[in-house]
Amino acid sequence: MNTMRIDWHAKARDLALPRQAFIDGRYVDAISGATMPCISPIDGRIIATVASCDSADVDAAVRSARSAFEDGRWRNQNPAERKRVLLAVADQMEAHAEELALMETLDMGKPISDALSIDVASSIATLRWFAECIDKVYDEIAPTPQNSLALITREPVGVVGAVVPWNFPLMMAMWKLAPALAAGNSVILKPAEQSPLSALRLAGLFAEGGLPGGVLNVVPGLGPTAGKAIGLHMDIDAVGFTGSTEVGRLFLQYSGQSNMKRVGLECGGKSPHIIHADCPDLDRAAQAANSAIFFNQGEICNAGSRLLVDRRIAEPFMEKLMQVARTKAAGDPLDPATSIGALVEERHMQRVLDYIQIGKGEGAKLLLGGQRTRSNSGGFYVEPTIFDAVTPRMTIAQEEIFGPVLSVLYFDTPEQALQIANDTMYGLAAAVWTGSIDTAIRSSRALRAGMVYVNCYDVDDLTVPFGGFKQSGMGRDKSLHALEKYTELKTTWIALSP
Fold first, then answer.
1. Beta-carbon count within 10 A of 195 CB
2. Annotated active-site positions, please?
């Protein structure tokens, strides 16, 4: 699709936005009647008022989901039929791709070109991939003695709560929904309060595709109300969460305070991006280093926010890095030519600006950016920002900023690079640029991260798992391993006649 030929501002003006929760197969107001404003970071305007759900709505959603699970209207359908329904939903999403992309851009300020070609396209691909898995994942027979037969079957865990962030609203929702539904579960989805629109529209598309009522419920609301209610609910069997490490800890607490529900977490990151002196292509590495931090405005959990450069190539590499970075600028998210959009909300923009001030105060050298931009638009934009002369213990080298702010550090030996890279509480992703296969393999083995890129960054697909070590979380999204979060293994031991 040629997005350059579309008048996205006109499409945005004509777009009907969903406003109600989706419970038991229909759109409904919050039981309390409460609403919350949906503010577009593009210009700071309220574009809709959306139902603000609380524990009463979560209760209603769980009752609906539990009833659907227990009567088997979804989990007991033949695998081929469940696959057919999910593929039909993917077709519905494809037919409404522009609508979904606009909702993503209006809600969280990402460039419309990215929303359409990355977020929506990837979400559709994810649903199709897991739909195709349904009739291709086999159970097992254990190698028991001849007088016994042991069956190992994978069964849906039950009612799943999915709590997703605002940076990739549709994609992160689908990373939870697709495997959970493919496994036969019922789901309660809580989108982030900053970005509820695409999740609400998605619920309707699932219904139109043939998903039975009650199998998917969507409860927009605040984290301390609706999110907490999901975490503490005694009749939710598992929670899949993506978001900050701080909130991830809360869900572990909620599990212990309630029914010990299973919790899968994909949390924060402070990913190291290591450039060795034998890097085979400094130009390509410089391009990747820019994309790794400025894509999606830096609002990405595996952003390469710490750039570690071998001191021997510091001068030529930094020249190439800055040459690319100076071409980057925040622009109108509804302009297809824009590659960097708005930050999700004013509070988050101020948080990013505060980190920039902390970096300057701690002695880091500001090479680029560092200011709010496009303020006349009313939106929430920050210039692409690069700090040089950062030391490992500086705040901007340790804490997740979640914005377009890059910290550059230097190392003298491969061992020092690994020590700096692992010197963080996070372990989501890492990257190594080197011409030596020995360095690549040794670095990959030593780096405490769930994903290690070699001579690239943020390159993967649905066949590989995504998740982190340490306080970046537990459990994996994507690939067949995602099914492990939403299924139980059952052993049936059969004693055979002598």
1. 29
2. 266, 301
